Amino acid sequence: MNTKLRMFGVIILCLGMTVSAWAQKPDRSAPPPLGPPPSFSMSAIQHFTLSNGVPVVLLEKHQVPLVQVNLVVRAGSVLDPPGKTGLASMMASMMMEGAGERDALQLADAIDFLGAQVGSAAGMHTSGVSLQTPLSKLDSAIALQADVALRPAFAPAELERKRKSRLTTLLQWRDEPRSLASLAFNSTLYGSAHPYGASSIGDEQAIRSLRVEDLRQFHARYFCPDNAVLIVVGDVTAAEMKPKLERAFGAWKGTAAAGVNLPQIKQVEKRSVVLVDKPGAAQTEIRIGRIGASRITDDYYPLIVMNTILGGSFSSRLNQNLREQHGYTYGAGSSFSFRLLPGPFLAGAAVHTAITDSALMEFMRELDAIQKPVPDMELERAKNYIALGFPGEFQTVGEIAGKLEEMVIYDLADTYYSHYIGRIQAVTKADVQRVARKYLDPAKMAIVLVGDRAAIESKIGAMNLASIAHVSIEDVLGKAPVIEGTK
Amino acid sequence: MKRIVVLLALLTSLGTAGENRISVPYTRFTLPNGLTVILHEDHTTPTVSVNIYYHVGSGREKPGRTGFAHLFEHIMYEGSGHVPEGKYDEWLEAAGGDNNGSTNSDRTNYWINVPVNALELALFVESDRMGYLLDAMSPGTVDGQRDVVKNERRQSYENRPYGMASIVLDENLFPPDHPYHWPTIGSMEDLSAASFEDVVEFFKRFYGPNNASLSIAGDIDPAKTRTLVEKWFSDIPPGPPVPPMGAPVAFLGAEKRLVLEDKVQLPRLYMVWHSPAYYRPGDAEMDVAASVLAGGKNSRLFKRLVYELQIAQDVSAYQASQQLSSTFNIVATARSGRTLAELEKVITEELQRLLLEGPEKREVERAVNQYEASFLRRLEAVGGFGGKADQLNAYYTQTGNPDYFQEDLARYKALDPTDVQSAVRTVLREDQRVVLSVVPTGKPELAAPARKEAK
User: Fold this and answer.
1) Contact with chain A for residue B192, Cβ under 8 A
2) How far is A209 from chain B (nearest CA, A)?
3) What ipTM did this prediction achieve?
4) Which end of chain B is more exposed for a tag (fewer CB within 10 A), N or C?
5) Is A280 near chain B, with CB under 8 Å?
């Protein structure tokens, strides 16, 4: 079949070459008009339930013989007990270090040999074990995924190894301006007592405190069928998958423990400036923000549109101003992190040290300007950018599984994505201004800078934004851990 | 122009992959001005990707102008004859589109992903900068992007831990007149020196349709797409012929051992060799060797350094395939309190074992199975870096055959342990490599020894 195809290809090439037609110059006086946008329709979302009650959400996609299976568990780092920050993350990481009948090396060998990819991770509110595999290896791969999710070994020697690795990560973060900026920013906003303000892997003390028993207990309490959902996308049908999933996950038993109460989130009520000294840094990492909104807010669509205008696309105001007009940075932008509880809004960039104050000025200027009504053209562009580009986000089994996961976690209806485009298009100029005023008061922003104090402090001080709180790398990350050798 | 609509339609209807054969069916034609065009249908989502390769990268730069090809890539977004500054991005975003570009030593690529109703808009803006870039250029345009690119250099190299290592390695691996001697990002000094006249000259010399290939993949009708491509690209005159990039032989007569101090907590060791260019004999072998050495927990270096001895925080190995000459790299970061001499000793042991005994059958099979699965993953996305439009264009540029997927995979599937052993014996020579120690400032004692210790 392919040989024929290529022979035809050669014929066409030759014919094409013999035709000499310098086409007339096309009319370039205006961009060609766009036809009507293509309609967007998802394949049907199918549902069934395993005998132990685990719900399965499945979407068929038959272009490529691949299957994605995501096990999602409603338990994440917000459930880390006091003093044991990083437990959920360590537990998830340790799930890959031996499971079922296999130790860590055997497990990795079995997965790699299939050409499958199995990953375990903990987020703020959910954890999970994901699998992507060639269809031809599905049965073996899903058995390994189930081992990882249900029968992790949590071997003590592996925990000791992971512990040293994570302590070393704490050391390495000292070198990374971006990591420092994000740690300092989150703790400034939420305080380190709230999981949103803490490092996902915990500090030295927490890392050292973790015991195998903690991992086992966390797993037993929360990795239970009544707390889990399976998401399947790929070259399979529900009828094919049902017995496979039943075999792998159907005998799973247990009842999940209740969640915990989190500390109250306190909004930023006045402007503050935090400066983390990184002597000799070529750039300053700037983060400006406050607490944003929950994923399940009525303001979701206006916020997405407003942020796209402010800093969510290449032609957004922040990027145009700081990069294109001023050349202060390689790129500037802003984002809302939508979670079950209000995640952060942040605007940021890495800017040349010498113009840190001027760059900061432009950030503040744009945060002021977004409070005013946005021009129609800009609003339309932002809405179209999000809405018309949306169908392109459903190309791969991994992307689609991610969308279904979002549906499950935030309890969105099956028809949710079918209405998405219309809901973006319905956002008005008044909506955008309303949410800008509600969420982005420039007088109530935390400003975090990671840069060369000696070079930037006096100029920042002269801006009179707020008094500068000086923070050392040790304040952000604790003392450099001393890691025992192993031989 | 006479069109071959029926034949094209017939061709695309044949476009399903046979069993166990990985294929991305395409049609190809060349415009009279020399522009090669590759079309691929994928109706998974109502989107299309327009991807263009200009067969020029930083390897073509002249002395004193390092970084120019990449600076030029930035300038390509600053407007053209009929697309005012800023409108390239604004118009595409208003249509729901995204775009980006990248430069390396060998080539520069650009892509636009748009909903399929905006295909013609994408062709309009892409053809306008190919035909009419200079109508919109001024010295001010160069200045604006010069500052942006300098910040890119600060962000990606100077302000990043170990960020300067790759620059030092290339300088030492390749002689000064070799196209891979200098970094694609360029030096600050040369970026300062780049002028408007350089833009004019570079554009005229390298950005003609005869030095480019256009790949369009997605929810398209090939016949209609061909008509649109002809409409927008046919009036652009060809540039001068561009001869192939030449280079002196990249050869290290002896081992070079270097030490670089950086603002880092942990020392990191780099060992780099010259290796076969992409798709040459030995290239796939070295990919598999990289996997045997540092791909996954059971790989030899990971298992020894990170898993068992726990003297390294991480280790990686990779064959960086390029057009003229590739490099094979081993990179390992020491744990706190460990020296690079300790790491090097173990790496040397493992390399000697690999050279002497070759890999085991299962190690090679495991690597090849992972490659095979990765080829399936590469068939999913249509656009962006690494999407099908981009891959078709890369394969066309590198091999002359856009649908080189099966041939590429076959290189790996044909390998047995002795092939890999013979390649590592040729490439991984102790007397022809660069060994770079990056150490925390003021701690040269953590570096690998200045001369390799006696065995």
Assistant:
1) no
2) 20
3) 0.93
4) C
5) yes
What's the pLDDT at B6? 34
What are B377's two structure tokens?
């993953």
Residues of chain A in contact with residue B372, where contact means CB-CB under 8 angstroms, are 115, 134
Q: All domains of chain A, ordered by start, with CATH?
A: 46-249 (3.30.830.10), 272-477 (3.30.830.10)
Q: What are the angstrom distances between the C-alpha of A455 and each of A96, A335, A352, A422, A451?
A: 45, 28, 11, 49, 8
Interface of B with A in 424-443 (CB under 8 A): none
Q: Structure tokens of B160? A: 């990043």
Residue A51 has phi, psi (to 5 degrees) of -60, -25
CATH superfamily of B256-446: Metalloenzyme, LuxS/M16 peptidase-like (3.30.830.10)
CB count in 10 Å sphere of residue A67: 27
DSSP designation for B80: B
Q: Which residue has the tokens 């004999």?
A: B281
Give the residue range(s) of CATH 3.30.830.10 domains in chain B: 5-17+25-233, 256-446
**A11 at B interface, C-beta within 8 A:** yes
pLDDT in tens, B274-300: 999 999 999 999 999 999 999 999 999
The whole-angstrom separation of Cα A284 and Cα A355 is 9
Q: Please classify residue B420 by burial: count the beta carbons closer than 10 Å to its beta carbon, then call 0-12 exposed, 13-18 middle and 19+ buried.
A: buried
B5-17+25-233 CATH, one of 3.90.70.10, 3.40.50.1860, 3.60.110.10, 3.30.830.10: 3.30.830.10
Among candidate residues A216, A423, A450, the one with its CA nearest the CA of residue A304 = A423
How distant, in Å, are the alpha carbons of B8, B49, B117, B417 from that of B222? 7, 13, 14, 44
CA B37/CA B222 separation, integer angstroms: 11
Q: List, for residues A304-315, the tens digit of each pLDDT value.
A: 999 999 999 999
Nearest CA of chain A to the CA of B74: how many Å?
A: 11
Strand residues in A15-137 grouped as ranges (E) = 46-49, 55-60, 66-73, 117-122, 127-134
- Cβ partners under 8 Å of residue B240, min gap 6: B204, B205, B208
What pTM was estimated for this model as a whole? 0.93
A261 pLDDT band, cuts 50/70/90, is confident
| Beta carbons of A385 and B96 less than 8 Å apart | yes
CB pairs under 8 A between A and B: 286
